Amino acid sequence: MPRATKEDLVLETALALFATHGYHAVGVDRIKDASGVAKMTLYKHFATKDILIEKVLLRRDEHMRKGLWAAITEPDVLAQGAVAQLRAVFEWHARWFAQPAFHGCMFIKASEEFLDDGSGIREASRAHKDWLRELLDGLLRQAGVVRHEALASHLLIVLDGLIVQANLFRGQDWVTQTWDLVASLLSLHVPPPTTGQAPRA
C-alpha cells in the first residue's frame, strides 16, 4: 500500500475534525497541529480554508461512493436484484449510524454553514446529493418502479431525514422501520407481474 502523502494526511485529519466539530469551529492551526505538518506545507496544498473544505467534501464524497457501491454490488445482493440493492443502501446507512465517528452529514452541515450559493463548497455538496439521487433513480428504474425520478428525489429526502434523526436520537433503530415503509410504498409503484394470459376482450 502506498504511503500517504502530506496532502492526504491533511485531508483525512481535516475530514475527521470537521465531521466532529463543524467547519467554523475548527481553525487551520488545529488541523496543522493534529496532522503534524508545517503551516507552509498545508498552505502549499490548500491556499485557503475554503479550498480545504471543498477538497474535504470531495474526499468524503469519494469515501461514500466507494462504500455504497461496494454495498450494492456485493454478490448476494446483486443476485437478489434491484430492490435488494435499494435495501442495501438503507442498511449501509444503518451501519454508518452505528459507528462512534458518526456525527451527521458533512454535506448538509456545509450547506448550513456556507450560504454563498455559488461557492465550491455548496457545489460539492449539491454534486454529492445529485449523485446519490441518480443512484437511487437507477435502482428504482431497474426495479420497474413507476415515476422513478420523482420517487428517487423523495427517497433522498428520506435518507437525509434519517441522517438527522440518527444524529439527534442516537441508539434508536430508525432504518428498519423506515425501510419497511419504503418497501410498502414501492409495492404500490411496481407494476403487477404478467401472467402470460391473453387479455380479456
Task: Describe the 3D structure.
With 201 residues, the protein is an all-alpha fold. The chain has helices at residues 6-21, 28-35, 39-45, 49-72, 75-80, 82-97, 106-113, 120-142, 148-168, 174-189. Helix content is 72%, strand content 0%. The N and C termini lie far apart (67 Å).
Give the SSE map.
Layout: H1 6-21, H2 28-35, H3 39-45, H4 49-72, H5 75-80, H6 82-97, H7 106-113, H8 120-142, H9 148-168, H10 174-189
Helix pairs in contact: 1-2, 1-4, 4-6, 4-8, 6-8, 6-10, 7-8, 8-9, 9-10
Brief description of this entry?
The chain has 201 residues and is mostly helical. Helices cover 72% and strands 0% of the residues. It is built from ten helices and no strands.
| Contiguous helical run count | 10
**Can you write the helix and strand succession as a string?**
HHHHHHHHHH
Shape: elongated
Mean pLDDT: 91
Termini gap: 67 Å
Percent range for β-strand residues:
under 5%
Low-confidence stretches: 195-201
Q: Structural class of the helix and strand makeup? A: mainly alpha
As a percent range, the share of helical residues equals over 70%
> How many strands, which pairing sense, and closed or not: the largest β-sheet?
none
